[in-house]
Amino acid sequence: MRVQVLVRLKPGVLDVQGKAVEKGLQGLGFSDVDNVRVGRLIELDLESDNLDDAKAKVSQMCEKLLVNGVIENFEFCTL
Amino acid sequence: MNVSVIEFPGSNCDHDVVHLYSSVLDSKVELIWHSDRDLKNPDLVILPGGFSYGDYLRSGAIARLSPVMEEVVSFANKGGLVVGICNGFQILCEAKLLPGALLRNINRKFLSQFVHIKLENDQLPFTKNMKSGDVITCPIAHGEGNYFADAETIERIEKDGHVVFRYCDAEGKVDSENRVSNPNGSINSIAGICNPTGNVVGFMPHPERSVEEIVGFVGSASGLPLFKCN
User: Fold this and answer.
1) Does domain A2-78 bear CATH number 3.30.1280.10?
2) B40 and B2 in contact (C-beta within 8 Å)?
3) How far is CA A30 from CA A26, B40, B108, in A?
4) Which of A77, B71, B119, B172 has the fewest CB atoms within 10 Å, i.e. is most exposed?
């Protein structure tokens, strides 16, 4: 199955990249844009026919490498 | 003193540390490649600055998985002295040997400039040749040096004296809102921390580049006492 993992900075953690993009958008005339946050989308193929097993594996991947729990949150879905 | 310097693909301050310990100080230095597991019986392990594994995913996230890091973690857990400089600090945080994380600099820029840092804790094996309040002048060179931890962690490391260095001005004055003295925006101007047992230390600035008078800037040898830790 195809898995999509969305990694985001936690609410309250300063996202300077988001701020830069926000300023860029506002500079282009999108003056009603606010609170831009930039995350990271990770896609992977996982060989599994058991959804619960797959979810447990992806959670482990996030905790061990894909996500830094000090500053980031994650969510994922299967396609 | 036997010093082992860990070399990752993308390390670029490894030879600064080798020069410091082999030429400025008269120590035995070994370079340890990231895929090796033999630390060569060190008294001190240094994780140098650089861009290990291209800083892919997050700074230090991939380096932390290197075979050598298993040995470094085991060495640290047995009380061995481990110091991470710049990218080495980021690796120690990713390896959970130190708390917190390094966010992008608050001004979004890669910062390559001089800073002043003040020693906050002179009771550690690595800082015992300096006095709390001593100021080191040295460069920083990083894009992600903005120290962050949750409020509870900050309170704990402040209370327990685990803040080792703070960014300050030339006189040692700390002002975390001042972008001249605290250019990357670190919480409480934190530039370096240690673990609860004091044998693992990490910091973003480069005092290993401030170890020789001949370099010629004011304070160009101000970092030397730090590294005389045997």
Assistant:
1) yes
2) yes
3) 5, 59, 21
4) A77
Determine, for residues B185 and A71 on separate chains, whether the beta-carbon distance falls below 8 Å: no
Task: Say whether A9 sits in a helix, a strand or coil.
Answer: strand
Whether A40 has a pLDDT exceeding 90, the answer reads yes
Q: What is the ipTM of this complex?
A: 0.86
pLDDT score for B229: 78
Q: What is the pLDDT of residues B116-157, one digit of tens each?
A: 999 999 999 999 999 999 999 999 999 999 999 999 999 999
Q: Would you say how long chain B is, in residues?
A: 230
Whole-number CA gyration radius for chain A: 16
**Which residues make beta-bridge pairs with B136?**
B117
C-beta neighbour count of B145 within 10 angstroms: 28
Residue at token pair 């800082």: B127
B2-227: CATH topology: Rossmann fold (3.40.50)
- Residue B199 makes CB contacts below 8 A (sequence gap 6+) with B76, B79, B80, B81, B82, B124, B125
Strands (E), chain B: 2-7, 28-33, 44-47, 81-85, 101-103, 111-119, 135-142, 146-148, 163-168, 190-194, 200-203
The closest CB to that of A70, out of B100, B105, B146, belongs to: B100
Phi and psi at residue B18, to the nearest 5°: -60, -45
Nearest to B190 by CA among B228, B164, B161, B159: B164
Q: Where are the beta strands (DSSP E) in A30-71?
A: 40-45
Mark yes or no for CB contact B101/A17 under 8 Å. no
For chain B, the domains span 2-227
B73, B64 Cβ separation under 8 angstroms: no
The residues of B annotated with a catalytic role in the active site are 86, 206, 208
**Domain coordinates of chain A in residue numbers?**
2-78
Nearest to A68 among B58, B65, B146 (CB): B58
- The number of beta carbons lying within 10 Å of the beta carbon of residue B181 is 22
The reply to whether residue B94 touches residue A16, judged by beta carbons under 8 angstroms, is no
